Amino acid sequence: MAPLLAACVSAWRNPVVCDCGWRPAHPPARLASLRSDPTSPPSGPLAGNQGQFPIVHNVTVTEGGTANMTCRVEHNDNTSLQWSNPAQQTLFFGDKKALRDNRIELVRASWQELTISISEVTLQDEGLYTCSLFTMPIKTAKAYLTVLGVPEKPQIDGLTKPVMEGDHITLTCVTSGSKPAADIRWFRNEKEIKGAKEVNASGKTFTVRSSLQLQVDRSDDGVAYTCRVEHVALASSPHQATEVLEVHYAPRVEITHSSVFPQEGQFLKLECVSKGNPSPDPVLWTKDGGELPDIDRMIVEGRELIITSLNKTDNGTYRCEASNHLGTSSAEYVLYVYDVPTTMPPSSALPTQPTTPDIAFFDPHGTKSAATGVVRDPNALEQSGPDHALIGGVVAVVVFVTLCLIIVLGRYLARHKGTYLTNEAKGADDAPDADTAIINAEGNHAHAEEKKEYFI
Ligand SMILES: *[C@@H]1O[C@H](CO)[C@@H](O)[C@H](O)[C@H]1NC(C)=O
Ligand SMILES: *[C@@H]1O[C@H](CO)[C@@H](O)[C@H](O)[C@H]1NC(C)=O
Ligand SMILES: *[C@@H]1O[C@H](CO)[C@@H](O)[C@H](O)[C@H]1NC(C)=O
Ligand SMILES: *[C@@H]1O[C@H](CO)[C@@H](O)[C@H](O)[C@H]1NC(C)=O
Ligand SMILES: *[C@@H]1O[C@H](CO)[C@@H](O)[C@H](O)[C@H]1NC(C)=O
Ligand SMILES: *[C@@H]1O[C@H](CO)[C@@H](O)[C@H](O)[C@H]1NC(C)=O
């Protein structure tokens, strides 16, 4: 029970979070007074005078809106209630209007309640309003009327159209009239970015300015920069302003090609990928600094150069050039027409990834990779590094030569040993007698030893 009690006491201090099922029937008086509206006097038996106290609440209203000011008395013995404004002018005394201001109207008047409304509220209406109960002595309660200043629609300044790439620009977004000061957030295509905020007070309201310094890049072309004004008076529909950047930049050119190892007789397409604003068009193709030599086989279509059937005479440097009023850019492609391999690999593998003779060189069997149908990506060879390939090749050659030597040596020894045995046998067979056989055998033996020494 003790921990439960502790939890409940802490929950009473923080009434929003109470996870226990049990509550004291009457919270301690000290806590009750903390929880009640500080602008209203304590109620209940401790307060005395049978609860004849006016109870009011603070009111917050947006500029231009209507504020209802309510004053209540729980037990009233027919004593009048009165509302007065921050300047101590009486607005209503019971149901009697006291101040000539047609924005102020009576909503409800009874012994228990006096409610008035103030419409078209301005910032000047803000302040402490007093409800008085004319007992002896007079009892009062004060309610604060807070008026929120609505920020004006923002405007983005500092943008020229178009902007040149590399220019430094400062976008500023200003909104005035907010109270309290509004918040300004910047977004680059929905993604939030940080601006520098500056707040100045002007009278009761604030002017908020946020600036964004940018060095314009080509990637900013077509990008929307949004300044969003957030404020309590705007609830969930913030004001915003958006500007779309138009960035002008000189073209940048790049050539893409359809084949990594163009071979004689093949088709080759080069594309001049040029980006620039304003768009550079058309592009200009040249070969080795001059015009394209063979108009029949070399077809220019828009940004593309198509060579229908490659010939070794097509070797050379191809250049494409694009320009707009901001500048000119070019890119080069060095064409090297490869031989058609003498033995054709399976047709499906040939066009995009033909093997180079270099790979065949490392094959210890001396057959061309292309012929065996093994297709290796030349880029993969490059990635593995020339050192590895070289070492592999050397090792393969050394192993191959060593194997050959061992085989040749083995064969030679085997053949010689056979001869020796045959001679010995022959010597024994051919000899007419044992002596001759021994002589023959000895002679052969000596001869074999000589040979052995020679070999060792
Ligand atoms: C003020 O009181 C009137 C009458 O009860 C009601 O119609 C109106 O909605 C109230 N206005 C506000 C802002 O509470
Ligand atoms: C309060 O006023 C009502 C009529 O408005 C009257 O009937 C009642 O007796 C009065 N009460 C007191 C305590 O004066
Ligand atoms: C009412 O507003 C006044 C002035 O802003 C403040 O001091 C007081 O605490 C507020 N009362 C309540 C119950 O919010
Ligand atoms: C704020 O005040 C300073 C100094 O008076 C001025 O330089 C600046 O421009 C003002 N900023 C705004 C947002 O009004
Ligand atoms: C390449 O061009 C030369 C000269 O123009 C021509 O003689 C030759 O037949 C061509 N080769 C091929 C494969 O088209
Ligand atoms: C073109 O390059 C190839 C490489 O495959 C070379 O054999 C040929 O001699 C070159 N032709 C000219 C005209 O440079």
What descriptive keywords fit this protein?
single chain; 456 residues; alpha+beta; Immunoglobulin-like; 4 domains; six-stranded mixed β-sheet; 7 helices; elongated; disordered N terminus; disordered C terminus; binds 2-acetamido-2-deoxy-beta-D-glucopyranose; transmembrane; Ig_sub2; membrane; Cell adhesion molecule 2
Please describe what this structure looks like.
The chain has four domains: 1-37, no CATH class; 48-148, Sandwich (Immunoglobulin-like); 155-245, Immunoglobulins (Immunoglobulin-like, Sandwich); 250-342 and 353-381, Immunoglobulin-like. Strand 14 and strand 15 form a beta hairpin. It is built from seven helices and 26 strands. The protein has helices at 2-13, 29-35, 357-361, 369-372, 378-384, 386-430, 434-455; strands at 54-56, 59-62, 67-73, 81-84, 90-93, 96-97, 104-109, 113-118, 127-133, 139-148, 155-157, 163-164, 168-178, 183-188, 191-193, 196-202, 205-215, 224-230, 239-244, 247-257, 268-277, 284-287, 298-301, 304-307, 316-324, 327-335. It has 456 residues and is of the alpha+beta class. Helix 6 (386-430) runs antiparallel to helix 7 (434-455). A six-stranded mixed β-sheet has the order 2-10-9-4-5-6, with no helix packed on it. The protein has a five-stranded mixed β-sheet with strand order 12-20-21-24-23, with no helix packed on it. Strands 1-3-8-7 form a four-stranded antiparallel β-sheet, with no helix packed on it. It binds 2-acetamido-2-deoxy-beta-D-glucopyranose (NAG) (6 copies). Residues 312-313, 315, 336-339 line the site of one 2-acetamido-2-deoxy-beta-D-glucopyranose. One 2-acetamido-2-deoxy-beta-D-glucopyranose binds at residues 37-39, 58, 144.
